[in-house]
Design a protein that fits this description.
Blueprint (H helix, E strand, L loop, with lengths): L3 E5 L5 H10 L4 E5 L16 E3 L10 E4 L14 E5 L14 E3 L12 H16 L1
Length: 130
């Protein structure tokens, strides 16, 4: 099953996230508070559907990536992946049923950019499912 990508408050990295989705064969992106930056998106516009009016996924199969989560992305199953922007992270109030996980890192940075986190998450998904 191809996951649906949910982006929350992603701004200048939206185009890169869009290209990453197209590269991994993602067909649907849900955008929440991402502004109007979709006018000049990469040429995959017809291959990745954007939806700004969908409700937030309430499924327990939604994976929300968070730097400080205690669970690794490698240990959860998911059908949606939600990623917040660098300046405003996801809120647990949006989807309390979601699984919260992190991408294991060894460096000292506070977090990854949204497109880097998305690329790693989709690679993890593709290595399991494709």
């Amino acid at each position: 099953m191809i996951p649906i990508v949910c982006l929350y408050h992603v701004g200048r990295n939206l185009n890169r996230c869009y290209r990453t989705c197209e590269a991994f064969g993602i067909t649907d992106m849900l955008l929440f508070d991402c502004g109007e930056l979709t006018d000049n998106l990469y040429g995959a516009r017809d291959r990745v559907r954007l939806n700004r009016s969908a409700p937030w996924p309430s499924s327990d199969a939604t994976l929300c990536l968070e730097t400080n989560a205690s669970v690794s992305i490698r240990s959860v199953d998911w059908s949606h992946v939600a990623i917040g922007g660098e300046t405003q992270s996801l809120s647990r109030n949006k989807n309390p049923a979601a699984q919260w996980a992190k991408i294991p890192t060894t460096g000292n940075v506070s977090g990854l950019t949204s497109e880097a986190a998305l690329a790693i998450a989709l690679y993890e998904w593709s290595s399991r499912c494709l």
